[in-house]
């Protein structure tokens, strides 16, 4: 293995031992201090970021990405504020649950402990650097970051600032390490460091996530893509339906819990679709509809098979007429990405059926899919939204960065 | 993709939809019926198994493996009994926990649901076939089995018998499917069927598990290997220590929770080791000791560096003298496989330190490591012992074969 990665791995293992027993008070003290120091380092962060931004522009980076890359005084304050919010969250580490006396006298419980070493692979978004550190540190995890090459100077500046604070507070600086070599070869090697890294979390677009899932031998928590549907049932309150569809589609379009596809029961298509078409056009939403819907939606173009499986992340909505709730559920289970799905209905049995049979992280009755989010669900912080079924599903709060170990108190028990 | 695998995957997806809503009563009825029918099929199972056993012997299969492969009337009864025991276990599916009203009126809870499609890759142990089906079926999961080529006739006979029962009870036969092509190429393709399989569980030796972890792009639950330690502290009750060590080493040697390595505090080495050596020799345990221990244990040979990292699964024990509990913990965290570790001590602080700092699925004070087991922990059934940190850690009961989905009841909420 690459010497640099090996050293990083060893450093992380040593730091893991130290963080395993750090108190909540100490963690909170450090998080506050890191927040303060990030703001103190504003000038350094801005000048490092300026290099990345200039470089990005010179390389014709799309405007949206440049915006994500850009740091401002306000955004640095925002990173600091994110860390301060973590202080007020309950520390999940150390709780022992289910402690029970077995018939042979053994007392067995499950203690919540850090995962150990968390690897984060992400794109050119420097705010993820501080964010991921905060979530991992609050849960006693060591973090190794592999950011995009486009944000290298920014990430280095942020990590240096964090490490300075750790050192000043007598905590191992290796609680956070950044892989400075942003080559693909190094990334590929990093994804096979099972001996040193307990879990890998990719944060970014579809391509990044797929690459990590395919290459990593370390367990991966897959976050993200959302081809989310809303199904308007025969019995729906149609005003409510229009409001929810517009909210889920247009309140923010570039996010994974936005609605991408609409299914409408044939018995309400005539009442709903013309009205909806008008409202969608006001918001400049492109409509891609099947034949039945197209005739009722002026301005709609014909949807192709590809549309049903596409997460647009844009002002585009696919629309299809279905004949009953079963057809809607079957369509959703065929094309969805396991993120968020909603039914609008006043029918009790159809609501229950939809909740039971749709296979997704979050299934809604009569509400916008836009609520699938750590803050909205009441966790107060989020490491991402898991679309896989193992370990964590849906919005992941601090608990997703922990595991348990069995602790067993005996007095000489042997197995007969 | 291989046409056969693709068809298996599609069948599994269809079956998944059916099993998502099957009632506990129906599942229990089928489990009872499968148990009965397996016993009814005894003659067919024995003749199919005879082909595998004969073939194994002709190919010089080691005796231990032939024994694992062999079916007898008693063992078939045992498989049936295992299925009947599942009937009495509580069905975890459908429970909704943490249901809370959010400030905006949304009612959000987490519903326990099946994982979906579970893949099991295992070696020539036909009992795993019935066992894995039972655990998966009780939790509403579809199972795809990839057994060893050495047990193919036995596995086919068992799977046919189960599918007959499913059909007779009006349940999809594809709740269980066996990959009849036992080639490595097919196995390798199977491990990349992310679209159809939600989790892969390898059951078998170290080599098999490692191959699956390295090749699979499907999330894997790693079960298994156990390089388990016992540390005898300065303050230990030495009679208790001897009893526990002998139990953990010799009660059954070929299992993952058996003790493989002993650490002894230098202040008790003279009292403990000569007595222990005698008792171990009575049980024909080979002792591989470091220099300090070797002089106190007649008959002990010198341990090599390799010994510290070896899971013997045999009548062999490595022994090392340490200077304090910290050295013991550091040694364990360096060489263990994250399975089961024990301290024998009367010292409160050392007991707590050991529980806190040793990184393993199960950490014991004053008890034998042999208790790490689904039945002993009170789960009544076990799909394996997870030595990884994600999703499940330690003995995995039915809960490990489930996930959750968020169910959200609204009345028109949109995101501001």
TrEMBL record, chains A, B:
Keywords: Amino-acid biosynthesis, Coiled coil, Cytoplasm, NADP, Oxidoreductase, Proline biosynthesis. GO terms for molecular function: glutamate-5-semialdehyde dehydrogenase activity. The keyword Signal does not apply. Its EC number is 1.2.1.41. Its main location: cytoplasm. Residues 5-32 form a coiled coil. It comes from the Bacteria. It is found in: Cytoplasm. It is an enzyme of class 1 (oxidoreductase). Pfam families: Aldedh (PF00171). It catalyses: L-glutamate 5-semialdehyde + phosphate + NADP(+) = L-glutamyl 5-phosphate + NADPH + H(+). Residues 10-293, 316-378 form the Aldehyde dehydrogenase domain. Pathway: Amino-acid biosynthesis; L-proline biosynthesis; L-glutamate 5-semialdehyde from L-glutamate: step 2/2. InterPro entries: Ald_DH/histidinol_DH, Ald_DH_C, Ald_DH_N, Aldehyde_DH_dom, G-glutamylP_reductase_CS, Glu-5-SA_DH, GPR_dom. Gene3D superfamilies: Aldehyde Dehydrogenase, Chain A, domain 1 (3.40.605.10), Aldehyde Dehydrogenase, Chain A, domain 2 (3.40.309.10). Catalyzes the NADPH-dependent reduction of L-glutamate 5-phosphate into L-glutamate 5-semialdehyde and phosphate. The product spontaneously undergoes cyclization to form 1-pyrroline-5-carboxylate. Belongs to the gamma-glutamyl phosphate reductase family. PANTHER family: DELTA-1-PYRROLINE-5-CARBOXYLATE SYNTHASE, GLUTAMATE SEMIALDEHYDE DEHYDROGENASE. This is Gamma-glutamyl phosphate reductase. It comes from Blautia intestinihominis. The gene is proA.
């Amino acid at each position: 293995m690459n010497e640099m990665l090996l050293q990083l791995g060893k450093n992380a293992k040593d730091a893991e031992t130290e963080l395993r027993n750090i108190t909540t008070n100490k963690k909170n003290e450090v998080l506050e201090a890191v927040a303060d120091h990030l703001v103190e380092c504003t000038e350094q962060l801005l000048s490092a970021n300026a290099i990345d931004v200039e470089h990005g522009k010179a390389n014709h980076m799309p405007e949206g990405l440049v915006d994500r890359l850009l740091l401002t005084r306000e955004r640095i304050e925002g990173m600091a504020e994110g860390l301060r919010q973590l202080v007020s969250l309950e520390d999940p580490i150390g709780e022992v649950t289910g402690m029970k006396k077995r018939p042979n006298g053994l007392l067995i419980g499950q203690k919540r402990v850090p995962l150990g070493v968390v690897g984060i692979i992400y794109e050119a978004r420097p705010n993820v650097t501080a964010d991921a550190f905060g979530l991992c540190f609050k849960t006693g995890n060591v973090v190794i970051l592999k950011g995009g090459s486009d944000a290298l100077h920014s990430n280095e500046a942020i990590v240096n600032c964090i490490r300075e604070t750790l050192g000043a507070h007598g905590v191992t600086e290796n609680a956070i390490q950044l892989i400075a070599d942003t080559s693909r070869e190094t990334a590929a090697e990093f994804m096979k460091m099972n001996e040193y890294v307990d879990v890998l979390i990719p944060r970014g677009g579809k391509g990044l996530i797929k690459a990590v899932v395919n290459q990593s031998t370390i367990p991966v928590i897959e976050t993200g893509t959302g081809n989310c549907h809303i199904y308007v049932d025969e019995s729906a309150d149609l005003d409510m339906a229009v409001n929810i569809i517009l909210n889920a589609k247009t309140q923010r379009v570039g996010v994974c819990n936005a609605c991408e596809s609409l299914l409408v029961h044939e018995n309400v298509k005539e009442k709903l679709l013309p009205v909806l078409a008008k409202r969608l056009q006001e918001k400049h939403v492109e409509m891609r509809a099947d034949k039945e819907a197209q005739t009722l939606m002026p301005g709609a173009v014909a949807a192709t098979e590809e549309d049903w499986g596409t997460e647009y992340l844009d002002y585009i909505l696919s629309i299809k007429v279905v004949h009953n709730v079963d057809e809607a559920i079957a369509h959703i289970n065929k094309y969805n990405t396991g993120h968020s799905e909603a039914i609008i209905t006043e029918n009790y049995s159809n609501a229950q059926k939809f909740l039971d049979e749709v296979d997704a992280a979050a299934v809604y009755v009569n509400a916008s899919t836009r609520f699938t989010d750590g803050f909205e669900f009441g966790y107060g912080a989020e490491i991402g939204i898991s679309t896989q079924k193992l370990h964590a599903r849906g919005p992941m709060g601090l608990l997703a960065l922990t595991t348990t170990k069995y602790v067993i108190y005996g007095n000489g028990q042997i197995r007969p």
